[in-house]
Amino acid sequence: MQNAGIVGYGCYIPRYRIKVEEIAKHYGKNAEEIKRGLMLEEKSVPAKDEDSATIAVEAAKNALKRAEHVAELHKKISAVYVGSESHPYAVKPTATIVAEALGLSNNYTAADTEFACKAGTASLQMAMGLCLSNIAEYALAIGVDTSQAAKGDALEYSAAAGGGAFIIGTKRNEFVAEILHTLSFSTDTPDFWRRSTQLTPKHAGRFTGEPAYFKHVATAAKMIMEKYGYKPEDFNYVIFHQPNGKFPLRVAKKLGFKEEQIKPGFIVPKLGNTYSGNIPLSLNAVLDIAAENELILAVSYGSGAGSDAFIIKTTPLLKEVQSKTTKALQYLNENKIYLSYAEYLQHMEMIH
Amino acid sequence: MFRSSVPLRWRRYAERYRLIGNKCKKCGNVHYPKVEICEKCGSKELEEYKLKPYGKLLSFSEVYSPTEEFSAYAPYCVGIIQLEEGPKILAMIADVKKEDLKIGMKLKACFRKLYKDGNNGVIHYGLKFTPYF
Amino acid sequence: MKALAAIIGIGITKFGEHWNKGIKELLAEAQLKALEDSGISEKDIQQIYVANMCADSLSGQLHLGSIASQILGINVPSYRVEAACASGGVAINAAINALRHKDIVLVSGVEKMTDVDTAKVTTALMGAGNEEWEEFHGATFPALYALMANAYMHEFGFAEEKFREILSKIAVKNHKHASKNPFAQFPREITLQQANNASIVAYPLRLFDCSPISDGAAALVLCKPELAKKFCDNPVYVVASAVATDTLALAERESLTSLKATRLAANDALNQAGISIKDINVFEVHDCFTIAELIAMEDLGIAERGKASKLIEEEQTYYDASIPINPSGGLKAFGHAVGATGIKQAVELTKQLRNEAYCQVENAEFALSHNVGGSGGTAAVHIYARRLL
């Protein structure tokens, strides 16, 4: 039976950071309490001249660098899907900006997607569908955000910028990782939303926990394992959507996963929540260090609400491409530029 | 008036987004931006050519008194950069203060917003350069 | 030595902020003063050239040729000439060419820059550069010359502090000259310390390295050289008129520290006049920024490449020293009403050769004006003689 697989993957995180202390200081709040409560130290901030389109382009370029084993790939990609909560335009696709910047041939279909923080994984499923149905030979899926948060809202500590890109194909000998299965669980649950005329989102407080995040993530994880006959201990890595540090650790424990399975993909404490870039970036971090024939369970969460679960197996080709370009943890930990709160506000003003 | 023109910027997307210049078929000289006549040998036989996104910093300045379009970015750095294949260009250098710059350092191209036409107009993208770590 | 034209009348307005005068009033003042100085009637003018750069972007006004002739109430051919900041020098070159067919030509220059805010003027001035590849990438005019200054510092191995001193000395000199000139925008001296510590405009250039935003106009009445003595006793002769062009964008030049257009125009002019640069007694060079004056000294052949700073340190370019440069105060202290500057240089040098200047150079026989467009896309060099030998 034919599966879709990742032939190239990449990511990008802007250089700027702001520490929890710096934001807390502005509001006269206790930084240590917030850091403990959210398990967050600092988050990424876009440069004044960056937006979801520019981040998507850099991530996609990195994905192409890891897919050099496929000749003339940029001429063969015929579907582009970009998922984000911060597309630069409400009408005018980010996907075509990315395609133009990459120099794809013009025989491509494209669309932007939105499903809160899981727009990126939704794009991934669409890319898989186009490939498995032989409509596209290769497809590009990106999840990216310059996340917004209202001033004074708790989200301000975590809303971060970054994105990940995946090039999907169906020729097994080109895979760096094979997507064995995908399954989703969705309901109409308005836990977090942004009206079209508003610049920042709102949420329903504690309602975003049990009936929203935990219900969908846990259900999708359990359902995919049950359907395809897996147990938690079968996986080398597990990645859950990371809106903060607490939620993914709690759901992992509840489902029976161990700390060493979660740790490699657990990048939120120094990154923040990159919304649609969340799972794409964590998956990048895991792929950057995984060995061959290892199993990954990745479960995204998008408010509104739904979870996309993926069971992914790495191939021997993976280790040959990991070092072809900048890795997720390099973007995360190197060449950081720290901002004051005033500078941070200037940066955030420019994302609209 | 022209600052809001869409076609004026759109026709340069390939050149701006992907460093597409042209190369002389006769003597091999690479040009960026595109030329109509080879600057070295005068031949009109030119073909499109994609330049590599790396360059060397020949000079830089930090601008404190910007034009209207870039007032939100000031102070910012601009530089004259010699691309690997030879052509020299002027570009904004992103994510740096002048203390981060040294003549002769290696830079690489990055895709950034160049100019946003207010809250209602088109966002124009292009390449800036950053230090090559 | 062959004369190409004779200057028989000059007129100039004060450069500065003229709240009560628009383009027409400024142009009229200069044109009428020039006519009066020449002693001829406006009805004798057979052709007009008006140099201007920004009237369309700052005042919405093109078609200045028609305004210029209307001021005089005549219907002769009248052309607006534009070559960015070299508009004036290029207009003189065009007017001289016209003298092959016409006897008397009026050439003027005007600029009205203070009706809009600084950011708009900064934007408009970048029309002198490459809009798509310089302005759209964040370059400003000061930034272009700052890139030259930084490259110069690096190429010739200057320490930052030493280079800062050199540039400041140029500004101090030009202000000293302007302090004696009632037509100058800033008729007052500045100190070395003021220039060293002024706010940064575009690193490494500071406030006093940069010529100001100015309103102003200037005009010349030119006639065929053989007719000069009919009109005045002390005509000044133009013995060389040269214009050269180079790439529009700074990045595309062969060098960041030398303007090929200046070198070509200067060589052409000296050949036309049959003299060497050492024969020139007084210069008006295009100091849109202090670094431009330094580089011009080398491109004109006054000093060797990388060595002009020595003359500055030794203060040899004051009006009463060995190589007088910018006795008017230059663009920096006299002001830079862009389209008028090339004409103003000719006005100042005519005064020098008539012995009527404020910072009078003793026994001046030959003078040279150097006018540059943009960051060096055009250069116009003219040589003037007190008498024909």
UniProtKB/TrEMBL annotation, chain A:
Q: What is the lineage of its organism?
A: Archaea, Candidatus Iainarchaeota, Candidatus Iainarchaeia, Candidatus Iainarchaeales, Candidatus Iainarchaeaceae
Q: Please give the name of this protein.
A: Hydroxymethylglutaryl-CoA synthase
Keywords, A to Z, come to: Acyltransferase, Isoprene biosynthesis, Transferase
Q: Which biological processes are named by the entry's GO terms?
A: isoprenoid biosynthetic process; secondary metabolite biosynthetic process
Q: What is its EC number?
A: 2.3.3.10
Q: Which EC class is the enzyme in?
A: transferase
Q: Which organism is it from?
A: Candidatus Iainarchaeum sp
Q: Could you state a single Gene Ontology molecular function term? A: hydroxymethylglutaryl-CoA synthase activity
Q: Where is the Beta-ketoacyl-[acyl-carrier-protein] synthase III C-terminal domain?
A: 225-313
Q: Which residues form the signal peptide?
A: none
Top-rank lineage group of the source organism: Archaea
UniProtKB/TrEMBL annotation, chain B:
Write down the superkingdom of origin.
Answer: Archaea
* Residue intervals of the ChsH2 rubredoxin-like zinc ribbon domain: 14-47
Residue ranges annotated for the ChsH2 C-terminal OB-fold domain, each copy included: 51-112
A Pfam cross-reference name: zf-ChsH2
Name the record gives this protein: Transcriptional regulator
Question: Known Gene3D superfamilies for this protein?
Answer: 6.10.30.10
Residues spanning the signal sequence? none
Native source species:
Candidatus Iainarchaeum sp
From TrEMBL, chain C:
Q: SUPFAM superfamilies from the xrefs?
A: Thiolase-like
Q: Which GO terms describe its molecular function?
A: acyltransferase activity, transferring groups other than amino-acyl groups
Query: What InterPro entries does the annotation carry?
Result: Thiolase, Thiolase-like, Thiolase_C_2, Thiolase_N
The protein's UniProt keywords, in alphabetical order, are:
Isoprene biosynthesis
List each copy of the Thiolase N-terminal domain by range: 6-224
Residues covered by the Thiolase C-terminal domain: 243-386
Which GO terms fall under biological process for this protein?
isoprenoid biosynthetic process
rRNA-binding in keyword set: no
Coiled-coil region: none
Q: Report the protein name in the record.
A: Thiolase domain-containing protein
Q: Which organism is it from?
A: Candidatus Iainarchaeum sp
